[in-house]
């Protein structure tokens, strides 16, 4: 399942500096950011290999994650909060604020074969409740 944590941040009267360091198992190979996404749903996939780290460097958004066993919604609403996604994590980003900029770091280069667009099957409720 995805992990939410605070990035190391150094603050002083001159401002704040937040560090991405030793977050992704294979290092950082790709960086991109999503913006102008109000009223949109982004993502809608999981991966074969790619681990991704997400942080809203401006504004906020929500991230729905389903790893096939558990589902959770994460709020990314501060530039020092980072969501680490495992390849198995189906994810959808939504509810972007007006000024949201979502930064994504990946440990893999883009490869269309790494994307899985099939959701996990819906869980059937156990007859024993």
Automatic annotation (TrEMBL):
UniProt-listed CDD domains: cupin_QdtA-like (cd20292)
Record domain Sugar 3,4-ketoisomerase QdtA cupin: where: 3-118
One Pfam family matching this protein: FdtA
SUPFAM superfamilies xrefs: RmlC-like cupins
Name recorded for this polypeptide: WxcM-like domain-containing protein
Species assigned in the record: Emticicia agri
Lineage, uppermost ranks: Bacteria, Pseudomonadati, Bacteroidota, Cytophagia, Cytophagales
């Amino acid at each position: 399942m995805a992990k939410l944590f605070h990035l190391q941040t150094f603050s002083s009267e001159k401002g704040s500096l937040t560090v991405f360091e030793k977050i992704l198992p294979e290092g950082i190979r790709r960086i991109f950011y999503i913006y102008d996404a109000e009223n949109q749903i982004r993502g809608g996939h999981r991966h074969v290999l790619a681990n991704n780290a997400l942080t809203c460097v401006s504004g906020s958004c929500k991230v729905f994650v389903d790893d096939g066993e558990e589902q959770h919604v994460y709020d990314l609403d501060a530039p020092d909060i980072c969501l680490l996604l495992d390849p198995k994590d189906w994810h959808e980003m939504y509810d972007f604020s007006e000024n949201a900029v979502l930064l994504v770091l990946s440990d893999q280069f883009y490869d269309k074969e790494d994307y899985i667009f099939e959701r996990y099957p819906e869980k059937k409720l156990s007859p024993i409740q």
